[in-house]
Design brief:
The chain has about 325 residues and is α/β, with parallel strands linked by helices. Helix content is about 45%, strand content about 15%. It folds into two domains: about 220 residues, D-Maltodextrin-Binding Protein, domain 2 (3-Layer(aba) Sandwich); about 90 residues, 3-Layer(aba) Sandwich (D-Maltodextrin-Binding Protein, domain 2), CATH 3.40.190. The strands form two sheets. The protein has a five-stranded mixed sheet, with helices on both faces.
């Protein structure tokens, strides 16, 4: 099917500046080298690339992974990948599908988690029903991102018409809700429990189309250097193994990534997420029709969108077929 910045983070050991365009071009002629990744959200389920870079797992495969753009919003993470601002992105399925429907080059490599309740509309404790949000201020990430759309749908289904304030990052939404600047906000499960404990906020699961987060690149990069993409995928899959099996390493890193000082809270969040991370993170869309239905009003071509239009499962298929994934977990049974 054919269709027509805030804080700078350097996470790779010894890196002092972003690679130049020429150095990236040189690196991408080999099976390893410098690559950049972005995340749409600052959330545990989108922490994999950061964890792998910080733990040195990508370096095992010759990959110098940096993350110059963290929590830039799902649409921007996908758009920056299309523009060439970075080579990989951990974002939502919807922004990828939208870019494909615009005729742009982006493709899903892996789906690290299952689809689980991970986003909530959090309200001040005196607001006990979503219907009470009529005329109230609600903090969202962006105007049109996947989480923001889900927030609107959830509140509108409750019969309320609210005012939405784009605040870009979850920590800003959290701070605005804590200060009383807004009456409600879209927050991830990472911050749900902390907000309930500290402030007595109420949590309402988002009752709207949602989909698992994904790890994406471009078909152009696959065509020009498949082995580099494979090595990044190896590092990504091994990071999922680390997440699932080494809480002693992962929890302190997640505390730093999520900026949560309470170790016990992060331990509980990590334990909650462990079964949601997939041993074999193959892109899979049992809810493909729901994705089509969600997008078709804006993009008529979405009616015929196929899984193969937005995803390339061949990398995960190969890692499973050659025993790479089983070998990772076999060591845990010894």
């Amino acid at each position: 099917m054919n269709f027509p910045r805030r804080r700078f983070l350097q996470l790779a050991t010894g890196a002092v500046a972003l690679p130049t365009a020429s150095s990236l071009a040189c690196a991408q002629t080999r099976s390893g080298g410098a690559v950049r990744a972005a995340t749409g959200l600052l959330a545990m389920w989108q922490s994999t690339a950061w964890l792998g870079a910080e733990a040195g797992l990508f370096k095992k495969y010759g990959i110098d992974m940096t993350l110059p753009a963290i929590a830039v919003g799902g649409p921007e993470a996908a758009a920056g990948l299309v523009r060439g601002d970075w080579e990989f992105a951990h974002t939502g399925s919807v922004p990828v599908a939208e870019e494909v429907l615009k005729g742009r080059d982006i493709v899903i490599l892996a789906m690290p988690t299952t689809d689980f309740p991970k986003s909530f509309v959090m309200t001040r404790k005196e607001i006990t029903q979503l219907a009470q949000l009529g005329g109230k201020k609600v903090g969202v990430l962006t105007e049109a991102g996947q989480t923001s759309v889900a927030t609107r749908i959830t509140i509108e289904k409750a019969g309320a018409t609210a005012t939405y304030l784009p605040l870009v990052k979850f920590d800003r939404i959290y701070a605005a809700l804590a200060s009383g600047e807004i009456d409600a906000g879209a927050l991830p499960i990472d911050l749900r429990f902390i907000g309930q404990t500290r402030y007595g906020w109420n949590a309402f699961p988002m009752d709207a189309f949602d989909a698992p987060s994904i790890f994406a690149t471009t078909r152009k990069l696959i065509a020009s250097n498949r082995e580099l993409v494979m090595n990044v995928t190896r590092g990504f899959v091994e990071t999922i193994h680390l997440f699932k099996t080494r809480a002693d390493i992962v929890v302190p890193l997640l505390q730093r990534y999520l900026k949560i000082e309470d170790r016990r809270a992060v331990e509980e969040l990590h334990a909650f997420h462990v079964p949601e991370f997939q041993k074999v993170p193959r892109p899979s869309f049992p809810g493909m029709q729901a994705l089509r239905d969600f997008l078709v009003a804006k993009y008529p071509a979405a009616a015929s969108l196929k899984e193969s239009d937005i995803a390339d499962s061949s990398f995960i298929d190969e890692l499973e077929r050659d025993g790479f994934i089983d070998r990772l977990y076999a060591a845990d049974r010894k």
